[in-house]
Design a protein that fits this description.
It is built from eight helices and seven strands. With 267 residues, it is an alpha/beta fold. A seven-stranded parallel sheet has the order 3-2-1-4-5-6-7, with helices on both faces.
């Protein structure tokens, strides 16, 4: 039976990382509107607090997702306060715009720590609590599964998370835990906009022209909004998707490849 929208997650407990950002904040609001208790996690506690202040049942957590011990402490606190956890959304991420030959060890490790290790730590910490509940939904935010010049560290990290998620599906299904991924398209007023500006500068292209070309390459001929991603996350978090696991949900207006993601000049 389909529940009314405000009851789809009634009584459920959710943790959203990167909850102080545009997409993470929209996801937190969507889960809250569906009745969930939402722990809004971000390394920037002020931004997390700003998101949680707008929620009916939210609270902010300062969380450095690159630290295993921080994850264990956060999960322990949630279980102690709320009795368990039902939904984990791994949305925290960082990006690096650079050619491989210009990427330092520190840059590479920073991206991997934030985008890859965090998902491993978070899932590992959440699984025992979800197993005790007899159900759970893990939603990992990734990216389109195609190559993008100047974005090797970020794109590779998201490929890793998708592969990790595919493996995790097979390990936790027996406990009633589902694992899915979302690949967002271009969303203005997020890290995508900074990425586009940097990309246009690297390619020597006027930003407005670059942006127009990017929009033209989307079959629906518009950029997305954080709320578009949040709607997908809500679907995967609630029982409307009770028979859905191991899937990659592209929310990108039909954008299956970057026609503007050109190879570096002379490459």
């Amino acid at each position: 039976m389909r529940l009314p929208s405000g009851q789809k997650l009634a009584g459920r407990v959710a943790l959203v990382t990167g909850g102080g950002g545009a997409i993470g904040g929209a996801i937190a609001r969507a889960l809250d509107a569906a009745g969930a208790i939402v722990a809004v996690a971000d390394i920037r506690i002020g931004e997390a607090q700003r998101t949680s202040d707008a929620l009916a049942r939210g609270h902010a957590i300062a969380l450095d997702v690159t630290q295993s011990s921080a994850w264990d402490a956060a999960m322990s606190g949630i279980v102690s306060q709320h009795g368990g956890i039902d939904v984990l959304v791994n949305c925290a991420a960082t990006h690096l715009q650079a050619l491989v030959q210009d990427t330092s060890d520190d840059d590479w490790h920073r991206v991997v720590a934030t985008n890859v290790n965090s998902v491993f730590y978070g899932c590992r910490a959440a699984i025992p609590a979800m197993r005790d509940r007899g159900h759970g939904s893990i939603v990992n935010i990734v990216t389109g599964q195609f190559g993008v010049a100047y974005s090797s560290a970020y794109t590779a990290s998201k490929f890793f998370v998708h592969g990790f998620s595919q493996c995790l599906v097979l390990e936790v299904a027996r406990y009633g835990i589902r694992v899915n991924c979302i690949a967002p398209g271009a969303i203005p007023n997020t890290g995508f906009e900074r990425w586009y500006r940097e990309k246009a500068e690297l390619l020597g292209i006027d930003y407005d022209a670059f942006l127009a070309s990017a929009e033209d390459s989307i079959p629906l001929h518009r950029f997305g909004a954080p709320e578009d991603i949040a709607a997908g996350a809500l679907y995967l978090a609630c029982d409307d998707s009770a028979y859905v696991t191991g899937q990659l949900l592209g929310i990108d207006g039909g954008f299956s490849g970057y026609s503007i993601a050109l190879a570096p000049e002379g490459a």
